[in-house]
């Protein structure tokens, strides 16, 4: 009798909000048509906070970011030949304090107007509504679950 082991992976999704709160940066670096926030995988034995500090210190040319007061959480489960895998996402919003320079964002990314997110294929699927609520102020600060 085989024992199936549930594997868990963690990822931080960085939603970069423009300085004027009109657009967010989305990336399409995968082979699908889905647009994603910037992704940071959290290695086993590390924490989301540690990965975020490293990203802010080393991995980005974007400076003067202000962290938003809302954090979204999403959990998905997928089956594979090795057994089920749980993917936990933490969605964090950072607002730029000034306009970006063209070389400071990944080449596969583009700025999307928040008003056009409902027409896009996004991950997480709820990202458009989440950002609309954040910008318009009807999502309170704190934790919010994006699970269906």
Shape: globular
What is the typical, i.e. mean, pLDDT?
Answer: 85
Total number of helices: 2
Number of strands: 7
User: Poorly predicted ranges (pLDDT <50, ≥5 residues)?
Assistant: none
What keyword list fits this structure?
mainly beta; seven-stranded mixed beta sheet; 2 helices
SSE order and pairing:
Blueprint: E1 7-17, E2 23-27, E3 38-42, H1 48-59, E4 65-78, E5 85-96, E6 109-113, H2 127-136, E7 142-145
Parallel strand pairs: 1-5, 4-7
Antiparallel strand pairs: 1-2, 1-3, 2-6, 4-5
Describe the protein in words.
With 148 residues, the chain is mostly beta strands. It is built from two helices and seven strands. It has helices at residues 48-59, 127-136; strands spanning 7-17, 23-27, 38-42, 65-78, 85-96, 109-113, 142-145. Strands 1, 2, 3, 4, 5, 6 and 7 form a seven-stranded mixed beta sheet that branches. The longest helix has 12 residues, at 48-59.
Write a brief caption for the model.
This protein is mainly beta.
